[in-house]
Amino acid sequence: MKRLLVITLVALFSVGLFGCTAASNSPSTTDETDSSTNKNTNSESDDGEGPTLTYWYWADNSDYSDLMQNIITEFNETNDKGITVVGEEYPWDGGGFMETLFTASVGGGAPDVATFKLTSTPLFTANDLLANLDDYIENWDKKDDIDPNIYDIMKTASGTDSIYLMPWNTQVLYVYYRPSIFEEAGVEVPTTYEEFLTAIEKTTMDTDGDGQTDIYGFGMRGATGGQEPWGSFIHARGGSFDDLTSEASIRGMQDFIDIYENGYVPKTATTDGFNEIIANFKSGHTAMTIHHTGSSADMVETFGDDVSAFPFPAGEGQWTSMGDTENVIFESSEHKDAAFEWVSYLAAEKGQEDWTVATGNVPVSKTVQELDFFQENEFMKASIDGMSYAGIVPIKDTTTEWINTIWPNTIASALLGERSADEAMEILHEGLHEE
Amino acid sequence: MKKKKFNIWPYILISPALLIVAFVVFYPIIEAIFMSFQNYDLRRPDKISFIGLKNYIEMFQDEIFWTAVKNTLIWVILGVGLQFIFGFILALLLNQQFKGRGIVRAVSLIPWATPGVLIGLMWKWIYDGNYGVLNDLLMKLNIIDQPIMFLSQTSTAFSSVIVTIIWQGIPFFAIMILAGLQSISHEMYEAADIDGATKLQKLFRITIPSLKNVIFITIILRIIWVSNSVDIIYSMTGGGPSYSTQTLSVYIFNKATVLDLGYSSGMALLLMFMLATVAIPYIRKSFKEGA
Amino acid sequence: MSKKSFANKCFTLYLPLGLILTFLIFPFYWTFVTSIKPEHELYGATVTYWPKDLTFASYQKLFGEFNFLLPMFNSLLVATITTVVTLTVSTSAAYAFTRFDFKGKRIFMSLFLTNNMFPNVLLLIPLFAIMRSVNLLYTPLSLVVAYATFTIPFSVWMLTGYLKDLPNSLEEAAMIDGANRVKAFFNVVLPVLMPSIIATGVYIFIQSWNEYTFAVLFTNEATRTIPVTLNNLIGQLGVQWDLLTAGGIITIIPVCVLFFFAQKQLIEGLTAGSVKG
Fold first, then answer.
1. Could you give all domains of chain A from N- to C-terminal order, each with its CATH number?
2. Is residue C42 in a domain?
3. Does B10 lie at the interface with C, CB-CB under 8 angstroms?
4. Residue C156 in domain
């Protein structure tokens, strides 16, 4: 009896499966033929239909992925050249997105357009995978809608005078803080680096008197990605990425270590990544933490008025990290003109507005920046205030490895007291500037 | 046994398996051998050239490489060893008669059925130093009075990750050994019962000898699998803090994802060589060729 | 049953079983609890072992707007085909390795093993190029081929082990009775081997059901499998715990249910075999 049941189940299972396979296979095969004909022979007589573009992107959550699909649909319906964009979502996977993209493109299967991070530029340009956008931008009617210094950053990233990346949106880091905790600790919003350090110390509190810290002054990020807020400490002492072994840079590093050793940050800081610092801040575990507008909507939802922001204050120097997301067109694309239509739609037209308003990222388009939404938001204001001294970690071919493994492991060893500040800085300098 | 006469059948029987495998793997392995003698770094494609043994020499001078080798040994010995012991015990238990056995068997498969993405995240969440359930439990039981930063300090990070791989591998041994147990004929046990053998005697004289090959093979396969596994360590600690959880395979993965393919191929071949020295004595002993 | 033997059973069965099972199941329980907790409870001041406000919204979302059925179907398709293909070719190879003596046996056996020793991450670039050149990219078949390369060596070895532990006398007796080798294999060896084949099959199924590294590269929106879809829930702005854990639970359950039925079959296969043997 049981045996009969099993056999029936298996049989049903396989019938269902093969039925479905047949059903799902037929449309997908036709799909492929379609796209490959489009790719291989661009000058075909395709009944007045324009080209089809493959676009690879990642989405930071499922709302963003819906948003991107909507933007794509709208572009497909409204563009007057008959261009059809097909969006393919790939996981961000802690940066694994860029590796997948690279593997596919050296294997000859690059999409036409993809979202991109500045730090990977040297790898892709060294292998001649990206299309040069100089001429396209030169002839673009909205060229001046984007600030020249953004174009300059794109050029620096490639190490040439050419632009390979189409700006899309940026994120400027600033300090989130909790006004109620500041009030309780009796500190004002810091305007200098020294005041900032004092504020971290003072807001570290034992609120219930059991001898254990309940609120930490600062949420420190020691895992990958932490090099960005860390850079602000280095620069505040007058140091810089170009010379990490200078006395000033080492002083900044020492501050970072001291904050950890004095217990002003959670002990988990050595491995805390984005999730942890945000969770600690949102649960009231920390009084301050550093991030960008991408998390502001969430913060306001949690705290209402009890969360605010200030730019990372100046010491002997001042610096904050500018994050970024761009779009690139691949050299192998057969439809570069159409691809440029799409990336410029995202950079300065409706696509720009829709994306930045919904995600809270800082727009690159000046017209969009002028919108009330961006002018009136306090977090946007902290970002735009930081713009003037915002920078990026030097982009070399060593940068990705430095960010992913060298920085977090070396910092952890310094925080845990296995290495002194100068030993750690020695390793970090060499790792970044190795030839 | 029949000898000397050439028989085509075994070749026909193994060829489909061999062809599928060869189609995909041989070319990349040969390519890896070539790359390991070049400074094959796709970050600097213009400079790729033959450099002889330089990658290998560099490895021997690389402090991180040696830490990784040491960690790999600990990872494999503790990880596979304890998986096997607990898995074997679980298989023996699941082979006994009791109510709801079918359900218990299915349920004990859970760790193995969990997607890798989730394993790392879930355990990280359990170990969390601020909101983790493990710290909460230990504090409620008055075993500790301060939360332990399991994954954030070098003293506990590696053991915590090893516990996770043990958790994941127990069902593998349990299911594989359980299947072997079921093929042992009952008559042998019945005969032993007549002779008045104790349970322990039956275990060492009947059960283990009849499963000799299965035990060897599961252990060898698991050693290979565990020494090559990246996803759990990668998603829990990324190899940190301060390289304390970085195994050779994680190091290879890190170097390969930044496209330093020459160096990572070299390490991969070295790892293969080390694994082969574990497996080959077994092959030699148990597959003596007739001709 | 006497009292003594019950107490005995407690120590030799229920207690150790209970301990091991607690260790194995607790993380699963925790995943489940996380999937039905609202977010503010996740990072609350106290850890709750059962949610105060229980919510199944994540499950609704997963099947409603998220269309989790498609990746589930794709995973099922890939895992089933991989399992069937692998088991067929590996059983025949394992039979050859254990029942025949032939030149190069040791070399072939070692070749299968070295294959599993090679890290996947170094296979990615060449494999992508191969898949593209044979036009398999973005079809379920590309994953079947990619997975078969590591499930076949594994299964050949595993089944060789099981077959070596089966005494030759079984089939020799049948062959003396006049059955040819093929008949002896299907009538005598296969039924006894069934539990082992099923156990190996479970392994293959789970590996291909959960694999991520190849899946992210060889699939597109239409052919995405579960692990890739789950990974899409971890962005730069944090983990979507609710959807991710709910997705995890839904991934684990079918495998366990399948195994529940498979292991029932396994016992019956065995009794059938021993009757004949």
1. 51-171+323-387 (3.40.190.10), 174-322+391-433 (3.40.190.10)
2. no
3. yes
4. yes
Residue C6 lies in a domain: no
Q: What is the pLDDT of residue A33?
A: 37
CATH number of the domain within which C94 lies: 1.10.3720.10
Determine contact, residues C97/B217, Cβ cutoff 8 Å: no
Q: What is the pLDDT of residue B240?
A: 81
Q: Which of residues 169-208 of C touch B (CB under 8 A)?
A: 192-193, 195-196, 198-200, 202-203, 206
Q: In terms of CATH architecture, what is B42-286?
A: Orthogonal Bundle (1.10)
Give chain C's domain count.
1
* A274 vs C238, C243, C265: nearest CB: C238
The answer to whether ipTM exceeds 0.90 is no
Cβ neighbors of A49 (< 8 A, separation 6 or more) are A82, A84
Residues 112-151 of B with CB under 8 A from C: 112-118, 121-123, 125-126, 131-133, 136
User: What is the domain partition of chain B in residue ranges?
Assistant: 42-286
Q: What is the CA radius of gyration of chain A?
A: 25
- Partnered with residue A215 across adjacent β-strands are A205
Tokens of C107: 């070399």
Comparing alpha-carbon positions, the chain A residue that sits nearest to B43 is: A123
pLDDT tens digits for chain A (435 residues)? 444 444 444 444 444 433 333 333 333 333 333 343 333 434 443 445 789 999 999 998 888 999 999 999 999 999 989 999 999 999 998 888 999 999 999 988 999 999 999 989 999 999 999 999 999 999 999 999 998 888 988 898 888 889 999 999 998 999 999 999 999 999 999 999 999 999 999 999 998 888 888 899 999 999 988 999 999 999 999 999 999 999 999 999 999 999 999 999 999 999 998 888 998 999 899 999 999 988 888 888 889 999 999 999 999 999 999 888 999 999 999 999 999 999 999 999 899 999 998 888 889 998 998 888 888 888 888 887 888 888 889 988 899 999 999 999 999 999 999 999 999 999 999 999 987
> Which spans in chain B are helix H?
9-35, 54-61, 63-94, 101-107, 110-113, 116-127, 133-140, 154-182, 186-194, 199-202, 208-210, 212-228, 231-236, 248-257, 261-286
Q: B200 in contact with C at a CB cutoff of 8 Å? A: no
d(CA A118, CA A165): 8
The DSSP string of C106-165 is HHHHHHHHHHHHS-GGGTHHHHHHHHHHTT-TTSHHHHHHHHHHHHHHHHHHHHHHHHHH
- Put simply, whether C109 touches B (Cβ < 8 Å) is yes
Judge whether C31 lies within some domain.
no
Name the 3-class secondary structure at A177. strand
Reduced to 3 states (helix: H, G, I; strand: E, B; else coil), residue A324 is strand
